[in-house]
Design a protein that fits this description.
Uracil-DNA Glycosylase, subunit E, 5-stranded mixed beta sheet, 6 helices, about 35% helix, globular
């Protein structure tokens, strides 16, 4: 992909991979330029979403971004807090995040996933006005949907390794398979 092709993808939208009653709806911050150029979520080669999803046990093998529609067969989906693509997440204003949180809430109310997993604690805090939120299950719900804040799988997030991210994602996987009883995976 050339730099010109990537720049041309700015502000494009990447279609959601969604269905009703998913087990987990993963929610990215916003699409990067590579994702917008290819039409596939988490498409940048250094992004750890697909490896972490597999390492955590959500998928039986590591999917490639262009195989994203296979997630639906596992009861999983993908959307974003902010729909428009940008080169960096810091190009998104707080107001855009808050509006994204309102739109995401409406989407979750319509689709009714068991869990909404926001991959990026800062995006979650800003979109939902939860300034002190931490990684893990949240007290907030959207209807019957529980929320889990996960570490951002971007290669720029050096605080988390693929292995430690996979451990946190696996906690969500265990909770999402729970029959509704209080799980020992919640803190």
């Amino acid at each position: 992909m050339t730099p010109e092709e990537l720049l041309a993808a700015r502000d494009r939208l990447v279609p959601d991979v969604v269905a009703g009653d998913l087990r987990v709806l993963f929610c990215g911050i916003n699409p990067g330029l590579m994702s917008a150029a290819t039409g596939h979520h988490f498409a940048r080669p250094g992004n750890r979403f697909w490896p972490v999803l597999h390492l955590s046990g959500f998928t039986p093998r590591q999917l490639k971004p262009w195989e994203q529609d296979e997630l639906l067969s596992y009861g999983l989906g993908i959307t974003n807090v902010v729909a428009r693509a940008s080169a960096r997440a810091d190009e998104i204003s707080d107001e855009e995040f808050r509006e994204g949180g309102r739109l995401l809430t409406a989407k979750v109310e319509l689709l009714r996933p068991k869990w909404l997993a926001v991959v990026g604690i800062t995006a979650y805090r800003t979109a939902f006005g939860e300034k002190k939120a931490m990684i893990g299950p949240q007290e907030r719900t959207i209807g019957g949907t529980r929320i889990w804040a996960l570490p951002n799988p971007s290669g720029l997030n050096a605080h988390w390794t693929a292995r430690t991210m996979a451990e946190e994602y696996a906690r969500l996987r265990a909770a999402s398979q729970d029959d509704g009883q209080e799980s020992d995976t919640t803190r």
